[in-house]
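Supplementary Methods. Inverse-folding protocol.

Structures were first reduced to a discrete structure-token string of length 126. This string, shown here, constituted the complete conditioning input.
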């Protein structure tokens, strides 16, 4: 089970960091140029100049890190699910752990919560 816990913790950290970078750096730099965004927001804050190097950096972040995050999130889901089966978590705890991986910063809390539970229920891993 130690291998499952380590894999889960590594993937949770990687996915969490990428999600924070995407949401707090990439998306604002790429989209906060005063225009509408995704057809959902009428206008965004005017933080960057359209076509600037800063906006281009945001576009690169959202494009490449977004794709990497998507693939790595699938690995995160698999590792979290495998840990949940090995640790015999109930469905509610498993679902909360999986869903928290989609929320920036909350994923770090979920990883801490899951690690604490596994170590409490399996003291041989500590």
């Amino acid at each position: 089970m130690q291998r499952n816990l380590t894999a889960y913790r590594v993937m949770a950290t990687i996915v969490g960091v990428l999600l924070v970078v995407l949401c707090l750096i990439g998306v604002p730099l790429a989209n906060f140029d005063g225009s509408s965004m995704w057809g959902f927001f009428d206008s965004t804050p005017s933080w960057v100049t359209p076509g600037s190097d800063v906006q281009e950096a945001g576009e690169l972040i959202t494009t490449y890190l977004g794709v990497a995050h998507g693939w790595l999130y699938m690995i995160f889901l698999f590792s979290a699910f495998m840990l949940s089966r090995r640790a015999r978590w109930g469905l509610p705890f498993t679902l909360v752990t999986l869903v928290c991986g989609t929320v920036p910063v909350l994923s770090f809390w979920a990883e801490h919560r899951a690690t604490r539970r596994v170590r409490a229920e399996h003291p041989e891993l500590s």
